C-alpha cells in the first residue's frame, strides 16, 4: 500500500487519515496502542520528508495478514533527497527537532538507505509484542538506528533535556554522529 505525498504540510494530515484507514481495513482498531503509535510515526516521518526535502515523497505501509500476525508492521517514506536523516538536539524551547528521537523511542527498529537519487527511511513495530518503554542508550547507540547498516554513535547534547509524555532514557538529549 502506497500513498504519494506532495511537498505540502497539509499532506501530513492526509497521510495520517490514509494510515488510519489502512489499519482499520486490516482489523487494527484506531484506539489500539499499535495504531496510535503507527499514526504518530507516520506523522513524524512524513513531516520530515515534507519540511526537509521540498519534494514529493512516497509513504508505504506493510501490514501483516492475520496468518502472519507475528510479522512486524513496516512504515517507509521514500523521498528525493540524498541528505541522511540526522537526529538533532532540540533546545527546551524549540518547537521542532524531536521527530527522529520519537521514531527512535517508539519504533522497535528503524533505519534508512540510499536509493538512486534519494533515500528511504523505514521503521517497524512488532505487532504481537506489547508497547515497549524507550530503551536505554547503549555504547553503540540506542535501539537500531542505522544508516545503510552502520550503527551511529550516541553523543550527549549539553542542556537538551526533553520533557513531556515521551521523556525517558532514549530522549535524554541524544543525537547521533556517523561512524
Give a brief rundown of this model.
The protein has about 180 residues and is of the alpha+beta class. It has helices at about 10-25, 35-55, 100-105; strands at about 1-5, 55-60, 75-80, 110-115, 120-125, 145, 150, 155, 175.
Write the layout of secondary structure elements.
Blueprint: E1 2-5, H1 10-25, H2 33-53, E2 57-62, E3 73-79, H3 99-106, E4 109-115, E5 118-125, E6 145-147, E7 150-151, E8 153-156, E9 174-177
Parallel strand pairs: 4-6
Antiparallel strand pairs: 1-2, 2-3, 3-5, 4-5, 6-7, 8-9
CA radius of gyration is: 16 Å
DSSP strand count: 9
Biggest sheet architecture? 7 strands, mixed
Helical residue percent? 25-40%
Please describe what this structure looks like.
25% of the residues lie in helices and 25% in strands. It has 179 residues and is of the alpha+beta class. It has a seven-stranded mixed beta sheet with strand order 1-2-3-5-4-6-7, covered by helices on one side. The protein has a two-stranded antiparallel ribbon with strand order 8-9. The model is unreliable at 135-179 (pLDDT under 50).
What would the keywords be for this entry?
179 residues; alpha+beta; globular; disordered C terminus
Amino acid at each position: 500500500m502506497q500513498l504519494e505525498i506532495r511537498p505540502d504540510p497539509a499532506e501530513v494530515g492526509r497521510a495520517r487519515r490514509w494510515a488510519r484507514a489502512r489499519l482499520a481495513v486490516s482489523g487494527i482498531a484506531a484506539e489500539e496502542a499499535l495504531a496510535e503509535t503507527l499514526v504518530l510515526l507516520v506523522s513524524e516521518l512524513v513531516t520530515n520528508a515534507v519540511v526537509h526535502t521540498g519534494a514529493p515523497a512516497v509513504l508505504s505501509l506493510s501490514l501483516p495478514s492475520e496468518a502472519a500476525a507475528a510479522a512486524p508492521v513496516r512504515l517507509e517514506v521514500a523521498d528525493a533527497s540524498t541528505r541522511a536523516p540526522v537526529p538533532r538536539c532540540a533546545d527546551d524551547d524549540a518547537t521542532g527537532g524531536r521527530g527522529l528521537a520519537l521514531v527512535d523511542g517508539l519504533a522497535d527498529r528503524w533505519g534508512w538507505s540510499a536509493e538512486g537519487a534519494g533515500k528511504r527511511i523505514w521503521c517497524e513495530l512488532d505487532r504481537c509484542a506489547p508497547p515497549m518503554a524507550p530503551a536505554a542508550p547503549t555504547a553503540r547507540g540506542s535501539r537500531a538506528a542505522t544508516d545503510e547498516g552502520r550503527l551511529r554513535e550516541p553523543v550527549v547534547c549539553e542542556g537538551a533535556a526533553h520533557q513531556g509524555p515521551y521523556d525517558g532514557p532514549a530522549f535524554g538529549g541524544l543525537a547521533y554522529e556517523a561512524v
